[in-house]
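Human: Can I borrow your eye for a moment on a structure tokenisation matter? Separate attempts, laid side by side, tell us more than any discussion would. Could you pick a protein and write out its sequence and tokenised fold? No explanation is needed for now; the record alone will do.

Assistant:
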Amino acid sequence: MRKLIAAVALLAAAGCSVSAGAGDGRRTVVVGYQSKTINTVTAGTLLRGLGYLEKRLGDGYRVEWQDYDTGAPITAKMVAGKIDIGSMGDYPLLINASRTQGVAAARTELVSVTGYNLRGGLNSVVVAPSSDVRTLAGLKGKKVSASSGSAGHGTLVQALERAGLDPATDVEVVNQQPPVGASALQSGNVQGYAQFVAWPGLLVFRDQARLVYDGSALDVPTFHGVVVRQAYAKEHPDVVQAFLQAQIDATRYLHEHPVEAAEAVAEATGLPAEVVYLYNGRDGIASFDVTMKPRLLAALDHDQKYLKSIGTDFAGVDVARFANDSYLRKAYGASYDADTASTVNAAKIDGTDEACGTAAGDPAKAGEVWLAGEDRLRPAATPACLLRQVAAATSGGRTVRAAYVPDAATGTHWFADRSVWVRDPAAGEDERFKPFTTQDGAQSYVKEHPGAEIVGYDEALKAAAGQLKAAGGASR
């Protein structure tokens, strides 16, 4: 690593470019991204598919897209001067800054955010469906797969500490790439799997895992962002401006066309569109917003002590120096400060709930139903209303591709049929059924609400069907 940094420094001192030419007179811009880390799609998969960057740069440039499973190889190539712009999660961003901050020729800057979740819901811990582990504490003495230094690893360390466990001694963390860890979980070689978007949702959707810890329980913001080599940005500010403007364009497209965006990302990555939409859709787990919010930067600073405890040869980072929003301010325009102060998800569920006849709009309660053969999702005002929609659809012979509901405590969206449901007889008719992402969350609610009980999804649907019959109608 030191030799690579020294080589890059010598090249810079000699005035040499570390970006390869295209061979046809065009300049090459090398972008490192993670296609399956779908919280970065506005700076990666979706941006590439839409061609916005190429359009912004014009004929004088060629974009070389390099795809990786994690942020680590992107950082290594940025240190070597072989990637100009990269996107990755918060923990890898800190490692990126740490690895590059000592040499001016290799130093990077955080220039924008792709997406975030203010509670930490982009990272989760899952176990095998047949596992007897029901809470994070149940992983004591077991093996957990995680990508060392990743956002998922960082969440695991913080969550174990909150649960009263020593991350260094009470569990054995096995350093594995996400697809390798997924296979290890299925084979039984590890008993837990701590990863970032979209791996936990993918495994749960495929019935290959069960959520045991929702990162939202931490209530610590997590995000992904874009870094650029500082020397490259100073030499080619027009390229950085073009990239950020293209990212803003892609973000707007995602907000205005969430289903089309999910389908496009699914086609490019092989991920199910239903999983992509869980994170990237209306009121999804990820809020897409390029602005660098103070709460996100504060969380990045907060994460440093946990990254040091992981033992990744991490030196401290001056986050205020690392984050540079000057390029973004220029690309964004006059509303930058106002939008930076806002945390409202621009892709919001709205419309009329066909089962309950009320408006859907409260992000703490609103969900959506995706029926096969439809290119739109049907809004649901509450989880109970969503159950009625699903019951009506299935009784009418329709196939439900996916139904999304917010956790009653954290607001994290999850698949309705993979959620843990609670029936609370003391609640109003449209509020009686409450979903939770984990068994732990449901049990906490039951403990605090006498008369409430955990029920199966099928039982909740049956009750919803009975309500429809009693009302003498159903949604179409």
Remarks:
- The longest helix spans residues 237-256.
- The two ends are 61 Å apart (CA to CA).
